[in-house]
Design goal:
The complex is a heterodimer of chains A (1012) and B (214). Chain A is mainly alpha-helical. Chain A has 35 helices and ten strands. In chain A, strand 5 (760-766), helix 26 and strand 6 form a beta-alpha-beta unit. The two termini of chain A are 90 Å apart. Chain B is an all-alpha fold and 214 residues long. In chain B, strand 1 and strand 2 (164-165) form a beta hairpin. Chain B has a two-stranded antiparallel sheet with strand order 1-2. The longest helix of chain B has 41 residues, at 168-208. The model of chain B has no long low-confidence stretch (mean pLDDT 86). Classes of the chains: A mainly alpha (1012), B mainly alpha (214). The interface between A and B is large, with 70 and 57 residues.
Chain lengths: 1012, 214
């Protein structure tokens, strides 16, 4: 019977009934056609459970014991139930809070690059199995590699393997040596001794967990347990063969290394792990020398790879009810390695009736679907149609009783075929002639995930008997089968599209001493001809040519160097597709990866790569390859993009696409028009930036050394106009100051004339040397009058520089012979602390003035002593209390440069009955001083303003003591200042006019543009 | 050559160096400015220590606890020490105490002086200026003051269109107040220029023209 190509690979009719009952079908629950059981399969088994009968929400997810290495507590407080009719532990909406302690199983989860979390599968439970008690894993096919492959005989166009051609220009890259792989990748796929241990550890528990484990064929290397581990219904499902069952090998295993703990933050631990993994695959490792010939059982023992196996299965452990899911609690207790359901099915398939079974062998849920008492034979299994097809009798395998998908197999494995070993090349160990078994020729159905046909078509041993069975007795998977699967010799599994990275990195380096039995396992007469395993790697995602399976002779030699490892990494082994849904959701690789960044622990959920779609997976692989191709030495050494790897190299010889030479010399860079435009754009951008930088620097230099003509013209004009009066009288066009005293001047004259001899008078020098050009003359005329009256000026200042300037001015004034002569004290210079007092400067501005007031009026004794005790040189001032007290009877002269000094003295030096204050300041302070004097004429006198009043004062009161040159100089300064003010006024007016004209023109322009 | 003449020549040279700023920012100008600023700062430091701190310490702290002014003398010393903590970010909060004393006393003194020495006396003087012979000046002063106060009024009414407008009287008076402000600032600017020109002439006479021997 030929295989029907039009029939879908996965048919719900082929599924076991218990899966259909649970609604686990390929086409969904609605598509289940299961009659005669009286069960509504449209609903899950728990659908009829009322909410009040549901178990309370558990604090921890009920997982089998083998999943309990560490403690995982899940808090469902934040989880929103979906359906009240569904048990609480199955309702996962959102992500519960997981608290985990203990070891994490997959160390690769700590090292592997983190895939994005899968929002559609929020893993509700994160099992943490340990290497000791973790379930045996499928040692053959990584879980990522479940894609069916096209038939190797038919070449497949590369386009099929590039559904999304994201990088059309990227050339396929050869895989790099494993030694050059990143650390993460090495860690991902480097097995460790501990992995071998837990792979070989017997499974504990029973029921569905055991069944799921048995589906993985994990315990196949143990002949004692394999026959029971394989489900009976699966044994009967296997085709018959005439081969002799190879003896399970026994291999001396070196002492396994310490168990791994993937949850480590120590780099040394990682190094140690990698070192151990490398040692395992060293060619010189004698422990890996295997042979599968029956005569040399010691040489062929997969235990050497998988670790020591306990001689007997462990005693059954009573599983607490809390460890089981609720829906499993109703199942009867079973013993390890005695699958209830499977035995039951096996007995059914061997012709037994349901009623012959022991009461404990039949689950309740199957009892309801069982045929009535007395019914026998396959035809009686109305509720279990698929068991009819799984009959182990030879008759049952005839046409009509055998499923279509097994018919082709039975055509090949007829009992009449001799048990002659066949060369693997001519007849693979699977016993399938490639030409006769071609379920999918040239097709690539990506919707199919697992090639169950390929798995089921593997030859099974008869189990304990060890004798070849001519019938369709189930046969366990042998190490050779595993090796075939791993090495890719299996034609069926070779069609599985392995993930390139996974295969290359999961498999260790080839070892010369790593010898599989291969065909010799089935050919005892030729043990000396072990067939070397030719490693097969999956087609690279970047290599289109590798998308199809080439014959061994045509394979590229570099592909042969791909490492082969018979043992998958633990994280891969724990993922099987046939596990129940809740187990799949508990994939260890779904455990969040703990990352410690600067003391902050972050849990990053990890999802298997299989959750990615094919295009995304290919894109991922391509991205990784592209990143590797960018070498550091590709970075340009100079230029704006220096030391940036991967930039577009500047073409030394720009070649236009329109003028591509017929013969391209080596090293010539050809660029397309688009690339050329892009390069030009980048160059333009860089040129613009450089140009902008030059402009900025030039502007800075220009601003620093700007020779502005307008500024120079105004300066020169002012300097000339101001200087002219000092050289000629032609420019004396300004009206000279009044010779007749004003009212303000007369008040000052009266106050000065009222000074008694020897009267100390407070004079505030509130101007710095910068204002000396305006106020020095005014200070001199006032000091001259003070000295003439025999009064003693007491100089104070809130400006330290002002006090210094006063000291300097008085020193010059007191030693000027002309001044001394005018004072009638020739050769008697004025002495500090005797004829005048320059006190220390008054800190804190207004507060200092207030302190002076307190000292003068003795409001605080300390202020008087502190302010009048010492002079500016730090020496005792010589003022006594009587002198200070007498200051109350004399006016205060304030020489202020700015309005602030006027205001401070007017505000702070106030007291009822105080003597008047004389303001003598600059022109800038004239407005403020005049405001105070005008508003309070009883308190203030003056003011005297700058050069004008100094000239008037000099002419009116000190003309007899002044030389003609001094008077003339004052007049010249007056004329000079007047001319300068006139010119400055003209310039200001012109500037204002120009500015106004410019503003009007600009406004008109804006208006015109707006109107337009 | 005597010291006075040397000082005169040095002053002339530095004056020319400062005037060189007319040609732009240059090296000579910067040297002169830096010298003046540095000398002034050094002089202020010397004067502060020599004429303020040391006399205060001698007055109050000399003699220790036997000095009746010791406790009072320690107050400014303590405040000064607190201010030194401002140099350390860690202990700057202690410096805030000293700063609070300085600022509080200064503000209180200035405010009291402004009210008692400027606002009340000037307001009274303006009120007294309303005399038959000085009515115009008094009116100008009063109206100018009110106009300026109105100009700095930022209260208006929001129209339905969302535009905030002031009433027309306020806008009109405010416009006059703005004119008063402009005139005042212009006059002040003119006075400053005149003062600067006076200083310039004094510099010419006392720094440059003196070199000709006149």
């Amino acid at each position: 019977m030929m295989f029907d190509e039009n029939r879908p690979l996965f048919d719900d009719e082929d599924l076991p009934g218990w899966l259909k009952e649970g609604g686990i079908t390929y086409r969904g629950k609605e598509a289940v056609k299961f009659s005669g059981s009286g069960v509504d399969f449209a609903k899950p088994p728990w659908a009829d459970v009322r909410p009040e009968e549901m178990p309370p929400r558990a604090d921890a997810v009920q997982v089998p014991d083998w999943m309990h290495a560490g403690e995982v507590h899940i808090d469902y407080s934040d989880v929103t139930p979906i359906d009240p009719q569904v048990p609480t532990w199955m309702q996962i909406e959102g992500k519960p809070t997981v608290t985990q302690s203990g070891r994490l199983l997959p160390r690769s989860a700590q090292l592997r690059p983190l895939p994005p979390p899968d929002p559609e599968h929020p893993a509700p439970v994160i099992p943490v199995p340990t290497p000791e008690d973790a379930p045996p894993a499928e040692p053959t096919v990584p879980y990522e590699s479940r894609e069916p492959l096209p038939d190797p005989a038919i070449p497949i166009p590369p386009e099929i393997y590039d559904p999304i051609d994201v990088f059309p220009d990227v050339q396929p890259l050869e895989p790099e040596p494993e030694a050059e792989l990143p650390l993460e990748l090495q860690g991902d796929f480097t097995p460790a001794p501990a992995d071998l241990d837990w792979l070989n550890a017997p499974a504990q528990g029973s029921t569905s967990d055991d069944f799921a484990q048995e589906l993985q064929f994990n315990d196949l290397d143990n002949p004692e347990t394999t026959s029971e581990a394989v489900p009976d219904w699966l044994r009967s499902d296997a085709p018959s063969h005439t081969y002799s069952t190879p003896t399970p090998p026994e291999v001396s295993m070196p002492e396994p290394a310490a168990p791994l703990s993937g949850n480590t933050d120590n780099d040394d631990d990682f190094r140690a792990l990698f070192d151990q993994g490398d040692d395992l695959f060293e060619p010189s490792d004698a422990s890996l020398e295997l042979s599968s010939t029956p005569d040399q059982p010691d040489d062929l023992n997969l235990d050497s790879l998988l670790g020591d196996l306990p001689a007997a299965p462990p005693a059954p452990v009573a599983r607490p009810a809390a460890d089981l899911p609720d829906w499993m609690r109703d199942l009867p207790p079973v013993q390890p390695n005695e699958p209830v359901t499977d035995d039951f099915l096996a007995s059914l398939s061997e012709g037994g009736a349901v009623g012959d079974l022991a009461p404990g062998d039949l689950p309740d849920w199957m009892r309801a679907a069982a045929p009535p008492e007395g019914a026998s034979g396959a035809t009686d299994l109305s509720g279990l149609d698929f068991l009819n097809d799984l009959s182990t009798s030879e008759e049952s395998a005839q046409s009509g009783n055998v499923p279509d998908w097994l018919s082709g197999v039975q055509d090949v494995y007829t009992p009449d075929q001799p048990a002659t070993p066949v060369s693997p090349s001519a007849f693979p160990a699977t016993g399938i002639q490639p030409g006769k078994f071609q379920p999918r020729t040239g097709k690539r159905d990506t919707s199919e995930s697992v090639d169950i046909d390929a798995l089921l078509s593997l030859p099974l041993s008869s189990g304990e008997s060890g004798a070849p069975s001519p019938t369709s007795a189930p046969r366990e998977l042998t190490p050779y089968d595993l090796a075939q699967i791993v090495s890719g010799e299996s034609e069926r599994l070779d069609e599985v599209s392995f993930d390139d990275t996974t295969i290359d990195e999961a498999m260790g380096p080839p070892s010369d001493e790593f010898k599989f039995g291969g065909a010799e396992a089935f050919a005892p007469e030729e043990p000396e001809a072990p067939a070397p395993v030719e490693p097969t790697t999956a087609p690279s995602l970047l290599n289109r040519s590798s998308g199809r399976k080439l014959p061994a002779a045509e394979r590229p030699p570099e592909r042969k160097s791909a490492p082969v490892s018979p043992v998958p990494s633990p994280d891969e082994a724990t993922i099987v597709e046939d596990l129940p849904d809740f187990v799949e959701e508990m994939r260890p690789d779904g455990a969040p990866v703990e990352m410690n960044i600067s003391g902050v622990q972050i849990d990053v959920p990890e999802s298997p790569i299989t959750t990615l779609s094919d295009p995304l997976r290919q894109l991922r692989e391509r991205s990784r390859q592209v990143g590797k191709t960018v070498a550091e030495d590709d970075a340009p050494a100079e230029g704006a993009l220096a030391e940036i790897p991967g930039v577009i190299a500047q073409s030394a010889v720009p070649v236009s696409a329109a003028a591509v030479p017929a013969q391209i010399a080596p090293g010539t860079v050809l660029i397309s028009d688009l690339d050329r435009r892009r390069i030009r754009t980048l160059q333009n951008l860089l040129e613009v930036e450089d140009e902008a930088e030059k402009v900025v620097q030039k502007a800075r230099r220009r601003a620093r050394r700007t020779f502005r003509l307008d500024r120079m013209f105004i300066a020169v004009m002012l300097f000339a106009v101001i200087s002219v009066p000092f050289f000629t009288d032609v420019a004396n066009i300004m009206i000279p100051p009044n010779t007749a005293p004003t009212a303000e001047q007369q008040s000052v004259f009266a106050a000065m004339d009222a000074l008694p001899a020897g009267q100390p008078i407070l004079v505030a020098f509130e101007y710095s040397p910068a204002g000396s050009g305006e106020l020095d003359d005014l200070a001199r005329v006032l000091l001259r009058d003070i000295f003439r009256k025999g009064a003693k000026p007491v100089i104070v200042s809130t400006n330290a520089i002002g006090a210094m300037h006063a000291q300097s001015l008085l020193a010059v004034f007191g030693n000027n012979p002309a001044e001394l002569a005018a004072l009638n004290r020739a050769n008697q210079p004025l002495l500090a602390r005797q004829d005048y007092y320059v006190l220390a400067y008054l800190p804190a501005g207004a507060t200092g003035v207030r302190a002076i007031l307190n000292g003068v009026y003795n409001l605080t004794a300390l202020d008087r002593t502190a302010q009048f005790g010492t002079d500016i040189e730090g020496k005792p001032s010589g003022l006594n209390d009587a002198a200070v007290e007498s200051l109350q009877r004399a006016p205060v002269i304030v020489l202020a440069e700015t309005a602030d000094e006027v205001r401070i003295w007017a505000e702070q030096y106030r007291r009822p009955g105080i003597q008047k204050m004389l303001f003598a300041g600059s022109v800038a302070a004239d407005a403020a001083a005049r405001t105070y004097t005008a508003s309070q004429p009883a308190s203030y006198i003056g003011p005297l303003v700058g050069l004008r009043d100094a000239t008037t004062y000099r002419k009116l009161r000190q003309a007899n003591g002044a030389t003609p040159g001094e008077i003339a100089l004052l007049d010249q300064r007056w004329q000079s200042t007047g001319l300068g003010a006139l010119l400055a006024g003209i310039f200001i007016l012109l500037g204002a006019a120009f500015s106004m004209i410019g503003a009007i023109r600009q406004r008109n322009r804006v208006k015109q543009e707006t109107n337009r | 050559l005597n010291g006075q003449l040397i000082a005169t020549y040095v002053a002339a040279v530095f004056t020319i160096m400062v005037f060189s700023y007319i040609l732009g920012d240059n090296f000579l100008y910067r040297i002169a400015v830096h010298l003046f600023i540095g000398a002034a700062a050094a002089y202020i430091a010397i004067v502060s220590v020599e004429s303020v701190l040391i006399p205060w310490v001698r007055l109050t702290l000399e003699g220790g606890f036997g000095n009746p002014l010791f406790a009072i003398g320690m107050i400014p010393i303590l405040i000064g020490v607190l201010l030194l903590f401002k140099t350390s970010p860690r202990f700057s909060r202690f410096g805030n105490i000293g700063l609070a004393v300085v600022m509080g006393v200064g503000a209180a003194v200035a405010m009291w002086g402004a009210v008692a020495g400027t606002l009340i006396p000037v307001a009274g003087g303006v009120a007294r200026s309303f005399t038959p012979g000085n009515a115009i000046d008094g009116f100008i002063i009063l109206f100018g003051t009110i106009a300026v106060l109105v100009y700095f009024t930022y209260v208006g009414r929001r129209r339905p269109s969302g535009v905030v407008e002031q009433p027309l009287p306020i806008r009109a008076v405010g416009l006059i107040g703005r004119g008063v402000v402009v005139i005042t600032l212009g006059a002040t600017y003119a006075l400053v220029i005149l003062s600067a020109l006076t200083v310039f002439t004094g510099v010419l006479v006392n720094r440059l023209l003196i070199l000709r021997g006149g």
